[in-house]
Design brief:
The protein is mainly beta. Helix content is about 10%, strand content about 40%.
């Protein structure tokens, strides 16, 4: 491990901006600290576990009970969901939300950008382990840019000889002051699949207030993507978090509420009051079909 961290620092560290460290349970992590913001990324899952613009509180919620264990998903931050969203369509024994969030990514490059932001580029390719779960050749690139905004770009490339179908999500957990004092804007008038009510299709008639467990897939949401009009208004922290997206037509809103929070070992009983997930997704009918050589980029910019 010490050798891996040393080698990563020798090749990719950026003076006073980006360095590699041993994280929880010995997992390698990247620390970014520049003039504009700080962030932490675990190579396992390409998982952003912290993002904090200078002078502000953390934007992402991390579970204080997150289990940082090899091949296990990390609770909180931004899990990368890929190549399928939710349970596997045919084989329920395959991992929920795919394998990208539990696989260790390779570092491809690091960059200090002229606007003082810092970029980390990670990559994953098919291996015998991924082929056993999903028998396809692929290259997946994840670019994370840390500045006043956090920019995440996930690019899938079909390197095989047959068309592949991919789903996924940037499963962002946002930190909120109190769940009873926020509302989410931008999804008014959109239809959603209510995953807690036999997948019934319902319509959003007002801004979203969360007063109970919520697990919804909003569809045809591409019009909410560009201007950052999908936003969390937080009356307790007195701030607004906006999310701008590309390559996505579906948006997932999730809060486990009390009962489910208690049932999850890696989630504090009251944690549901301090978080909400808004996921930039390729879910249900929004999966993408990539012919050999084709690419698809799912991206998200988060800012205050
Ligand atoms: C959401 C799903 O995306 O992720 C929920 O819509 C699920 O159904 C939630 O409970 C958390 O999933 P996991 O696998 O991280 O516990």
């Amino acid at each position: 491990m010490a050798h891996q961290i040393e080698a990563l620092n020798a090749q990719f560290a950026l003076p006073e901006q980006l360095w590699f460290q041993t994280g929880e349970n010995g997992l390698p992590k990247v620390q970014i600290d520049n003039k504009l913001a700080s962030a932490e990324i675990y190579l396992q899952g390409g998982h952003i576990t912290a993002f904090q613009p200078r002078g502000n509180k953390p934007v992402l919620w991390m579970s204080p009970l997150a289990q940082f264990q090899r091949n296990k998903a990390i609770r909180g931050g931004v899990p990368i969901i890929w190549p399928w969203f939710g349970p596997h369509a045919i084989d329920k024994h395959k991992p929920q939300h795919g394998f990208a969030r539990t696989t260790e990514w390779q570092v491809n490059a690091t960059k200090a950008l002229p606007d003082s932001s810092t970029q980390l580029q990670l990559q994953m390719q098919d291996t015998p382990a991924t082929q056993a779960l999903w028998p396809h050749a692929f290259e997946l690139n994840l670019s994370i840019t840390v500045g006043t905004e956090l920019k995440i770009e996930l690019t899938s490339r079909n390197t095989g000889e047959q068309t592949i179908t991919i789903g996924g999500a940037l499963h962002s957990y946002f930190a909120v002051g109190d769940i009873g004092q926020i509302h989410i804007d931008g999804l008014l008038g959109h239809n959603y699949i209510d995953q807690l009510d036999s997948n019934r299709i319902k319509r959003q008639h007002e801004a979203i207030h969360i007063r109970q467990e919520v697990d919804r897939i909003y569809f045809d949401t591409e019009d909410t993507c560009t201007e950052g009009i999908c936003a969390i208004f937080d009356a307790k922290l007195l701030r607004q978090i906006y999310i701008k997206r590309t390559g996505s037509r579906s948006t997932v809103i999730w809060n486990p509420w009390e009962k489910k929070a208690k049932a999850m070992a890696d989630f504090p009983d009251n944690g549901y009051r301090q978080m909400v997930c808004i996921e930039t997704a390729n879910a249900v009918d929004d999966v993408r079909h990539l012919a050999p050589g084709e690419t698809h980029t799912l991206s998200q910019i988060i800012g205050l």
